[in-house]
Amino acid sequence: MRENDMLEKDEIFSKVLRAGRRTYFFDVRATKADDYYITITESKKFTEEDGSFHFKKHKIYLYKEDFAAFTEILEEMTDYVLNNKGEEVISERHQKDFKREYQQETVSEEKSSEKSFTDIDFDDI
Predict the structure, then answer these.
(1) The pTM is what?
(2) Average predicted confidence (pLDDT) for the chain
């Protein structure tokens, strides 16, 4: 079998999820025995100060015998996070451009603290 034929046989079905600097690849692949398994690959883009970039990839192999337990635990974990923290994304605070948003929050905090400020004249005491 030619190399291209093996690649086509190996990649059965794929989906991509782009999420900011991260991209997730979900692929159904075939074993040598022609059974199927799933790979989940996280690819994260890192940009250097000089403008160049590189990717770091992490891959998980998930086999059919583990699908039910994996799905059950993943659902339990996602339910736990959503039930305890809601769907609002708060991790954006740690991104590079958060300062701009933080400065806006600070200005509104200062305005609200000015409203609650009481001017005291020490001559009144």
Answers:
(1) 0.60
(2) 78
